[in-house]
Amino acid sequence: MAAMAAVLRGPGRRFRWRTQALAGGVRGAARGVAAGQQDYDLLVIGGGSGGLACAKEAAQLGRKVAVVDYVEPSPQGTKWGLGGTCVNVGCIPKKLMHQAALLGGMIQDAHHYGWEVAQPIRHDWRKMAEAVQNHVKSLNWGHRVQLQDRKVKYFNIKASFINEHTVCGIAKSGKETLLSADHIVIATGGRPRYPTHIEGALEYGITSDDIFWLKESPGKTLVVGASYVALECAGFLTGIGLDTTVMMRSIPLRGFDQQMSSLVMEHMESHGTQFLKGCIPTCIKRLPDGQLQVTWEDRTSGKKDTGIFDTVLWAIGRIPETRNLNLKEVGVNINPENQKIIVDAQDVTSVPHIYAIGDVAEGRPELTPTAIMAGKLLAQRLFGQSSDLMDYNNVPTTVFTPLEYGCVGLSEEEAVARHGQEHIEVYHAYYKPLEFTVAERDASQCYIKMVCLKKPPQLVLGLHFLGPNAGEVTQGFALGIKCGASYAQVMRTVGIHPTCSEEVVKLRISKRSGLDPTVTGC
Amino acid sequence: VKELFSSLGVDCNILELDQLDDGIRVQEMLTEITNQKTVPNIFVNRVHVGGCDRTFQEAAILGKRVLVLDFVVPSPQGTSWGLGGTCVNVGCIPKKLMHQAALLGQALQDSRKFGWEYNQQVKHNWSTLTEAIQNHIGSLNWSYRLSLREKGVTYVNAYGEFVDHHKIKIQQLERGSPGKLKVWAKSTEGPETMEEVYNTVLLAIGRDSCTRKLGLEKIGVKINEKNGKIPVNDTEQTNVPHVYAIGDVLEGKPELTPVAIQAGKLLARRLFGASSEKCDYMSVPTAVFTPLEYGCCGLSEEKAIEVYKKENLEVYHTLFWPLEWTIAGRDNNTCYAKIICHKPDSDRVIGFHILGPNAGEITQGFAAAMKCGLTKQLLDDTIGIHPTCGEVFTTLEITKSSGLDITQKGCG
C-alpha cells in the first residue's frame, strides 16, 4: 500500500484519501482495478451534451453515477455553468441571437404588411445579452436539478487521471477530490483555437466563448474564420446593426457543399456583411482609445492592409480538451494531428473501460444531438442489455446564417466523388418564399437541390435547402432519407401549400437538362 | 415517332443506327450521354427528350388543342377577381400573407425582449396590407395568363355551362365600410340568445361546389344532390366516360391546391401522354395556418382508433417550448407534437400532428418520410437538428397510454 501510495503521489502532490466506513476497510485509489469496488459504476468527465445524456441514462438504469464538470475561464476571463458548449457558448445563445437578428428583419418587413412603426429603430445589445444570459443560467440550473432528481452526483472540479480507474479533481478553491469508477467516459468537448503565432491575438481577440457573455456591445467587429461559427456570428452581428467584416483565408464552410456555401456567403454579402477574402491577419495592436488595429495580408497579391475595429473575434476552429487530462499516463491514445481521442465503433478508447464521446472523440460530427444520442446508447450498451451502435450516416444539420442552410446526406461533390458524375442526377430550383413577395425581399439565394442516384428509382443521396426555417424544413426530409427515400417517392408526396418546404417535393428540373430552375407561380 | 413529327410539321434529322458503319459505337455513346440504351432516342433543340413514350408525352404539350374557361361569378357583396382560382385569389395566397402580417405583429412584440427599441405606439394599417396583397395577386393573375399563352392554351373569360343551423339574423344598422351590423344569435345547445353589434360578419360555414349551373344534367353527369360534389373513379372519370372532374368539386377528396394540381397534371398525362400513373390521395399532408399553426399528415387519433382499434395503436406525444419563445416570454406548454403508431405493423407512423410555429415547413418532410414507410424506430434512430422544433419528433418517449406527465420544465 505504501509503495502504491508513493507511485501515486508523484512530484509535490498531496492527496486526500477518501475513506468510508464500509465493511471491508478503507476505500481509495489504492484499490484501483477491481471492478465493482470503485466509488461509482460510471464517472463522466464533462457535463456537456454527451456527458449529461450518458450520466442520466446510466442513472436511469439504476447505476451509481458521478459527473465532473469544470470550465476553465477563457483568456478573456469568461466562464459559465453546467451544460457544456451547446447550452452556454454554442447552439442555444447562438440561435437566440440569430433570432434577435431575424426579428430586426421582421420589423422591416412589418412596414410592408401594414404595421406602422416609428423611426428610429435601434438595437440594445445589453438588453439582448442579459435576456440570453438569463435563459442560459436557467438551463444551467435546470441541468443541476435534473442530475439531482436522478441521483447523479455532480462535482464542479477539474479532473485528470491518476490511474485507469481513478481521477483527481481540483476545485476552484484548490481542494482535491479523488473519484474512482468501473467505467469512465471522457466527454470534455473542445474550446476555440487562438492563433497564438499572431501578435496580439491572444491578448486582444475574443472567441465564441466570450461573444455571448459580453455585457457591452462588441461594436465594429472583425470575425476571422470561414467556419459556420464565423458566419453565424457575423450574421447575427450584422443583423442587429453592427458594422461587421469577415476575414477568410480561403473557402467558406469547408466540408459543406461548396455551391451552397457560396450562396450563403453571397446572401450575407448582399445584406450588409463585408468580406475580406483570401486574407490572413498578421498583427493586432491596441490603440490608446481602446480600439484594435488589425494588419493583414492578401494572400494572392501579397499586399498588406490595416483596419480599425472594436472587437476581433477568432473563429478559426476548435481544439479538443485533452491536454490536461493526463491521458498519456493511463494509456489513452489520441490522434497527434488533432489531439482528439481515438475510439472504436463502440466508443471505447485504447483502454477497455475508458470511453470517449462527443466533440472530443475522433471522427465524430461535432454536433449536440449526435453527442446526446452517443451518450445514451453508450450507457445502454454498458448497463442496459443493448448492443445498438450509433449510425453516423445521413446526420442532418443546419447552419443558422441570416439565410439558413439545412442539409442532410452527401454534398454534390461527395456524391460525384463516390458515384461518378454520370451516375448521379441533381434536381434543383430557385424559389421565392411567399412572405418575401409583399416584404419586397431579395430571394436570389433561396435555392434547393436534391442529389440522387441516376438509376431508377433514384435514391436520394443528399438534400440541400437554403431559405427561411431551414432546420424545420430539413428535419422531416432527413427522416425520409433514413427511410431510403427515392426521388420518385418524394415527388409522389403532395405539397403543403403555401410553404417553402413544398418546393422540395416539386423539384423537377435537373442540372443535366440545363433548363432554367427558377420556380414561377403556383 | 417519325409520323408524330411529320404530323406536327417538324423537320427532323434522322440517324438510322443500323445503317451506320459505327452505329454500335454511336449507340454506346448515346447510352453514356443519356442513360438510354434503346432507340428511338430523341433530342429536341439539343435537349434529350427520351424514347417513344416520353416523346409522345412531351408532344402532348405541343400538339393538343386546349381551352380553359374561367369565370368568377361575383360574390353577393360584389367581389370578383382574375385568373387563378380560389387558391391564388381568395384562398391560400392572400390567407398566408395576412397570417404573416399577424405573425409579424407578434414578432414586433417579441423583438423588444430581444433588445429592439422603438416607439411603443404601433398601429396597423389595413389598406396598406390589402393593397400590397392585391398587387401580388394581380401579378399572379397576369403570370397565369402569360403562361397559358406561352403554352398555346386558349383562355376565355366566360361562364361555361351544362342558413339554418346557426339560426342567425343580421340587420344592417349603418351602411359604409365598415358599417354597423346588429347580430342576433341563438345557442345550438340551450335556450341562450345573444345580441351584439359588429362592423363585419364573416360567414365561414362551408363551401358549395360550383356544379349546379353547369348544365351537367343535360349530359347526364351524376352529382351528389346533397352537396353538389361529383363522384369519380380512381382515374377522375365521372359516369360519362369523356367527362372528368378534379379539385374541390370531387366527392370524398381533400380540398387542397396541391392535390388538385397533382391530379390535373397526372390526368393530362394519362389522357394525352402514355402514362398510367394515378393520383395518390392517401396521406396528404396539410397545415392550418391559425395563429398557432397545425400541421398534420395521415390519420387523426379518432380516425386511427376507428380504423385500427385502440389496442393496436401507440400514441407518443409531448409538449415543447420553441427556443425563440423562451426570451419572448411565451408559454412553455402550448406547443404539442404527437404521432400515432400502428403496433402490428412495426410501429408504422400512420398519423403525424404538430401544433407550433412553422408547422407547414416541419410537416412536409415527415409526409415524404411517411410515404417511405416511416416507423417509430426510424424516428428514434434519426438525429435531430438542434435547435429546432422539428427535432422533437426524434426524441419522443412518453406514450399517452402511460399517462405520464409531458409538461416541460427545462432543456432536455
From TrEMBL, chain A:
<dbReference type="Pfam" id="PF02852">
    <property type="entry name" value="Pyr_redox_dim"/>
</dbReference>
<keyword id="KW-0676">Redox-active center</keyword>
<feature type="binding site">
    <location>
        <position position="359"/>
    </location>
    <ligand>
        <name>FAD</name>
    </ligand>
</feature>
<feature type="disulfide bond" description="Redox-active">
    <location>
        <begin position="86"/>
        <end position="91"/>
    </location>
</feature>
<keyword id="KW-1015">Disulfide bond</keyword>
<feature type="domain" description="Pyridine nucleotide-disulphide oxidoreductase dimerisation">
    <location>
        <begin position="395"/>
        <end position="506"/>
    </location>
</feature>
<dbReference type="Pfam" id="PF07992">
    <property type="entry name" value="Pyr_redox_2"/>
</dbReference>
<feature type="domain" description="FAD/NAD(P)-binding">
    <location>
        <begin position="40"/>
        <end position="375"/>
    </location>
</feature>
<dbReference type="InterPro" id="IPR006338">
    <property type="entry name" value="Thioredoxin/glutathione_Rdtase"/>
</dbReference>
<dbReference type="InterPro" id="IPR036188">
    <property type="entry name" value="FAD/NAD-bd_sf"/>
</dbReference>
<dbReference type="InterPro" id="IPR046952">
    <property type="entry name" value="GSHR/TRXR-like"/>
</dbReference>
<keyword id="KW-0547">Nucleotide-binding</keyword>
<feature type="active site" description="Proton acceptor">
    <location>
        <position position="497"/>
    </location>
</feature>
<keyword id="KW-0521">NADP</keyword>
<dbReference type="GO" id="GO:0004362">
    <property type="term" value="F:glutathione-disulfide reductase (NADPH) activity"/>
</dbReference>
<dbReference type="GO" id="GO:0006749">
    <property type="term" value="P:glutathione metabolic process"/>
</dbReference>
<feature type="binding site">
    <location>
        <begin position="225"/>
        <end position="232"/>
    </location>
    <ligand>
        <name>NAD(+)</name>
    </ligand>
</feature>
<feature type="binding site">
    <location>
        <position position="95"/>
    </location>
    <ligand>
        <name>FAD</name>
    </ligand>
</feature>
<dbReference type="GO" id="GO:0045454">
    <property type="term" value="P:cell redox homeostasis"/>
</dbReference>
<dbReference type="InterPro" id="IPR016156">
    <property type="entry name" value="FAD/NAD-linked_Rdtase_dimer_sf"/>
</dbReference>
<dbReference type="GO" id="GO:0004791">
    <property type="term" value="F:thioredoxin-disulfide reductase (NADPH) activity"/>
</dbReference>
<dbReference type="InterPro" id="IPR023753">
    <property type="entry name" value="FAD/NAD-binding_dom"/>
</dbReference>
Automatic annotation (TrEMBL), chain B:
<comment type="similarity">
    <text>Belongs to the class-I pyridine nucleotide-disulfide oxidoreductase family.</text>
</comment>
<dbReference type="InterPro" id="IPR023753">
    <property type="entry name" value="FAD/NAD-binding_dom"/>
</dbReference>
<dbReference type="GO" id="GO:0005739">
    <property type="term" value="C:mitochondrion"/>
</dbReference>
<dbReference type="GO" id="GO:0050660">
    <property type="term" value="F:flavin adenine dinucleotide binding"/>
</dbReference>
<protein>
    <submittedName>
        <fullName>Thioredoxin reductase 3</fullName>
    </submittedName>
</protein>
<dbReference type="GO" id="GO:0006749">
    <property type="term" value="P:glutathione metabolic process"/>
</dbReference>
<dbReference type="InterPro" id="IPR046952">
    <property type="entry name" value="GSHR/TRXR-like"/>
</dbReference>
<keyword id="KW-0676">Redox-active center</keyword>
<dbReference type="InterPro" id="IPR016156">
    <property type="entry name" value="FAD/NAD-linked_Rdtase_dimer_sf"/>
</dbReference>
<dbReference type="InterPro" id="IPR036188">
    <property type="entry name" value="FAD/NAD-bd_sf"/>
</dbReference>
<dbReference type="GO" id="GO:0045454">
    <property type="term" value="P:cell redox homeostasis"/>
</dbReference>
<feature type="domain" description="Glutaredoxin">
    <location>
        <begin position="1"/>
        <end position="49"/>
    </location>
</feature>
<feature type="domain" description="FAD/NAD(P)-binding">
    <location>
        <begin position="192"/>
        <end position="264"/>
    </location>
</feature>
<dbReference type="GO" id="GO:0004362">
    <property type="term" value="F:glutathione-disulfide reductase (NADPH) activity"/>
</dbReference>
<dbReference type="InterPro" id="IPR002109">
    <property type="entry name" value="Glutaredoxin"/>
</dbReference>
<dbReference type="InterPro" id="IPR012999">
    <property type="entry name" value="Pyr_OxRdtase_I_AS"/>
</dbReference>
<dbReference type="GO" id="GO:0005829">
    <property type="term" value="C:cytosol"/>
</dbReference>
<keyword id="KW-1015">Disulfide bond</keyword>
<dbReference type="InterPro" id="IPR004099">
    <property type="entry name" value="Pyr_nucl-diS_OxRdtase_dimer"/>
</dbReference>
<keyword id="KW-0521">NADP</keyword>
<keyword id="KW-0274">FAD</keyword>
<dbReference type="Pfam" id="PF02852">
    <property type="entry name" value="Pyr_redox_dim"/>
</dbReference>
